[in-house]
Design goal:
The structure is a single chain. This protein has 224 residues and is an alpha/beta fold. The protein has 2 domains: 3-86, Outer Surface Protein A, domain 3 (Alpha-Beta Complex), CATH 3.90.930; 100-221, Alpha-Beta Barrel (TIM Barrel). Helices cover 35% and strands 21% of the residues. It has helices spanning 3-6, 43-52, 66-77, 88-99, 123-126, 139-151, 174-187, 206-214; strands spanning 12-15, 19-24, 27-32, 37-40, 57-58, 81-83, 106-110, 161-166, 193-199, 217-221. The strands form 3 sheets. The protein has a 4-stranded parallel beta sheet. Strands 5-1-6 form a 3-stranded antiparallel beta sheet. It has a 3-stranded antiparallel beta sheet with strand order 2-3-4, with no helix packed on it. A hairpin with a 4-residue loop joins strand 3 and strand 4. The longest helix is centred in the C-terminal third of the chain and has 14 residues, at 174-187. The relative contact order is 0.12. Bound molecules: iron/sulfur cluster (SF4). Residues 115, 117-119, 122, 124, 167-169, 200, 222-223 line the site of iron/sulfur cluster (SF4). Iron/sulfur cluster (SF4) binds next to loops.
Length: 224
């Protein structure tokens, strides 16, 4: 289904629950916390986004000119505007699928959306519904994701590729983190792969530290 079809004029839309507005030096940006992408808003995009901050509305209440139509489509293609009646993860999956076929330099392996902390700025604290059920990626799904990433690489193996293991706090799903790291190193030792772990650092056990060191995993510690 194309974005244009999904967003006919009568369709109600809203801002993505993963989008966060940031102001800096009189400019407004949106941060998509799942895609980890930052978009600077032009004046048309600002008008649309800020209008939707007051609540959902119909597409034809947002689009009046060719410029505002283009601005709307740019926000929708980045998953920053979502139809009110769809399951947001399905839309994000579509956007991801549309990008397949291009070459990748980076894959995020989100092994859980759960965390043992509750940082104020995080989507876990601010956007998830009260009855949200946290989940853990299985070892099988993690391996399928890694295989998919490798299958979509071009033959140019000189380019450094990154697999970033992330969450939530990934070490909530410790066994899958360990197995994924070992799988990448054992199955794809011929690829020029860099592995990164983004963690809040509170759950690094001696066993985990040993696996990270032996497999040359870069670690980024992030929390607030
Ligand atoms: S440690 Fe990271 S994932 Fe956990 S609540 Fe803080 S920002 Fe969110």
């Amino acid at each position: 289904m194309s974005l244009e079809l999904r967003f006919n004029g009568e369709k109600k839309v809203r801002n993505s629950r993963f989008s966060f507005s940031i102001f800096s030096f009189a400019r407004q940006y949106l941060y998509h916390s799942l895609f980890m992408a930052i978009t600077e808003l032009d004046s048309f995009q600002k008008e649309i986004y800020n209008r939707l901050c007051k609540g959902e509305c119909k597409v034809n209440e947002l689009i009046f000119t060719e410029e505002s139509k283009k601005a709307f489509e740019r926000l929708a293609r980045k998953g920053l505007i979502i139809a009110s009646d769809v399951d947001e993860p399905d839309v994000l999956r579509d956007i991801f699928r549309n990008s397949l076929g291009t070459d990748f330099a980076l894959m995020y392996l989100l092994v859980t959306d759960s965390c043992n902390l509750r940082c104020k700025y995080c989507f876990i604290e601010t956007t998830l519904p009260k009855d949200h059920k946290f989940s853990l990626m299985t070892e099988e799904t993690a391996k399928e994701g890694i295989d998919l990433f490798i299958r979509n690489l071009t033959t140019n193996d000189n380019i450094k590729r990154n697999i970033c293991i992330y969450g939530g706090e990934p070490l909530i799903n410790r066994e899958v983190v360990h197995k994924s790291i070992e799988y990448i190193r054992q199955s794809y030792s011929d690829k020029n792969l860099n592995i990164q772990l983004i963690t809040n650092g509170t759950l690094i056990s001696p066993e985990t530290a040993k696996i990270l060191a032996e497999n040359r995993v870069d670690i980024a510690v992030s929390f607030l």
